[in-house]
Amino acid sequence: MSTASQAHDYEKLLREAGVRITRPRRTILRILSEGGDHPDALEIFRRASAIDPSISLSTVYRTMRLLEDKGAIHRHAFANGPSRFEQADSDHHDHLIDMDTGAVIEFRSDRIEALQDEIARELGYEIVFHRLELYGRKRRG
Ligand SMILES: [Zn+2]
Question: Where does Fe cation bind (predicted)?
Fold first, then answer.
């Protein structure tokens, strides 16, 4: 999640990367910077058309593809569901997916980060990036 001024800086970065900020792109970027809940394309379309009724679902799909190609957003292919998206400028974190509600919970563990580095180093690698997804159910009682 980020503030309006961070969203503005983000647009500036994209423009510098040669991405023309059209109205639908701005609308979608705003939704992703304000949402923080990793919406899927249909949900992004629902929110976008509430802001700008002229946006079509195909515009949303096309824009998501372009923003992904430019490295502006991350696509998550979480198990058993459509791709979900988030802004790429958020700090590194991993995800826990609630299998009952589909909620995506962000977390970061310095211990896990350090352990991954250690494992990669032992195997003769340095990590360029990683994705870690935990799937779980809320414990009862
Ligand atoms: Zn996330």
Answer: 92, 94, 113, 130
Ligand 1 geometric centre to CA of 31 (Å) = 14
Query: Domains of the chain, with CATH numbers?
Result: 4-87 (1.10.10.10), 94-136 (3.30.1490.190)
Give the number of other Cβ atoms within 10 Å of residue 72's Cβ. 22
Query: 38 Cβ partners below 8 Å, 6+ apart?
Result: 76, 84, 85, 86, 95, 104
Task: Give residue 22 CA to ligand 1 midpoint distance, Å.
Answer: 25
> Would you put residue 38 in left (φ > 0), alpha (ψ -120 to 50) or beta?
left
Report, as an integer, the average pLDDT of 29-49: 91
- The answer on whether 130 is annotated among ligand-binding residues is yes
Greater pLDDT, 10 or 97: 97
pLDDT of 141: 78
